[in-house]
Amino acid sequence: MTEFYTIMLKRKDNKTYADLHKTNQQIYLTIEDAEEAFNSNEHFQKYYHIVKLIACLEEELNER
After folding, report:
1. pTM strictly above 0.70
2. Cβ atoms of 43 and 23 closer than 8 Å
């Protein structure tokens, strides 16, 4: 499995969904990189949040 992060628009209902079309169109491999991008943009701080995503291959799911 691989963890990665993106900066995603906050929903009005405060729930988090993988609305990937509502990201800043960047993938960050570390939380530190995501936080640096997030903290350097005032607009992100008001309307976005950092979301951790997890990806895995189908074979990895079958092993569990």
Report:
1. yes
2. no
Instruction: For residues 45 and 19, give the distance between their C-alpha atoms in angstroms, rounded to a whole number.
Output: 18
Contacts of 49 (CB under 8 A, 6+ apart): 7, 8, 10, 16
Tell me the per-residue pLDDT of 19-37, one tens digit each, with 9 for 90 and over: 788 899 999 999 999 999 9
Q: What pLDDT score was predicted for residue 64?
A: 66
Q: How confident is the model at residue 58 (pLDDT cuts 50, 70, 90)?
A: confident
For CA atoms 18, 2, 4, 16, the dihedral sign is positive
Residue 54 in 3-state DSSP? strand
Close Cβ partners of 38 (under 8 Å, ≥ 6 residues apart): 7, 44, 45, 48, 50
